[in-house]
Write a structure and sequence with these properties.
Order of helices and strands: HEHEHEHEHHEHEHEHEHEHEHEHEHEHH
Structural class: alpha/beta
CATH architecture of the largest domain: 3-Layer(aba) Sandwich
Distance between the termini: 40 Å
Number of domains: 3
CATH class of the largest domain: Alpha Beta
CATH topology of the largest domain: Rossmann fold
Shape: globular
Low-confidence stretches: none
Largest sheet: 5 strands, parallel
Number of helices: 16
Length: about 350
Amino acid sequence: MDQRIHEAKQILGKECVILGHHYQRDEVIRFADYRGDSYRLSQMAAQAEGRYIVFCGVHFMAESADILAREGQAVVLPDLNAGCSMADMADITQVEDAWEQFVNLGLTDDEGNGVTPITYMNATAAIKAFCGERGGLVCTSTNANSAFDWAFRRNEKIFFLPDQHLGRNTGYVRGIPLNEMVVWDPYQIQGGQTADRLRKARVILWKGHCSVHQRFLPEHVDKVRAKYPGMQIIVHPECRWEVCQKADGIGSTDYLIKKVKEAPSGSAFAVGTEIHLVNRLAKEHPDKHVMTLDDSGCLCTTMFRISPQHLCWALENLVEGNVVNPIRVKDSVKRGARVALDRMLEIQ
């Protein structure tokens, strides 16, 4: 299988770029031309020059690549079943209904004069377009703080979706108290909030989460501290607020990698993020003790769907001139989503 993938890559040459997310399994990501988190891979997709972009990630990432791709480029997702449970927690009709209620309550007008919508990268193209059309933008865990700065210069209130934890952790770091951040539950009347609470809130958080990162609990931190005194605990901001408050460091996937990489030999880390990345960090830094914060292992099952077999099948079809599993975003959606993504790429 490895030989077939190598041969297909050689034939395709510069006409094909393979992007691999950090959470991919080792037997897939080793074939990636570029590795990264969703932010870096968006940058790579925007800069890709070949005819084909093969995205070893999940559906929303491939959608973003198609939005940012040049005319004539094709984006391929090796397995269409590679989705994201967080992205599925914010349906466009639910989001539009919430916004209509904001308008009716006088919080904003339909164009976003009053509330700035921000969507985390882990959302559908339709949600990205929704934000772009209402004066908002996309953010990642890398630039969420800058996105908040940008949004607050426009309005005094933010509507953040779909990950409540990233929104809450980012707001709290900025000095926004928890009682000024409320959670909108799309399955409750008026989001489960009173009109007064919504008016007083500076950040309205969508009730969504990452199925991997929400599994980390405060007691996992306590257990590690008791068993391994002096070990540094670093976590992704998709983790619960209570976990982040107990951690020694909070940051994006790239932050976690850099933290381990730049630490002196002999350093010890318990890392609160997806297990494939944690295991890879342990292998790449044998002079350091790197372990997962939760020893039950937190696997991104949808990312895991991309296998060497899927990658080989996609590449060999491209060699034959067949584009399989193409990801194409409708032009009507692409316009607004491109605005939101361009704003994301412009801020640091």
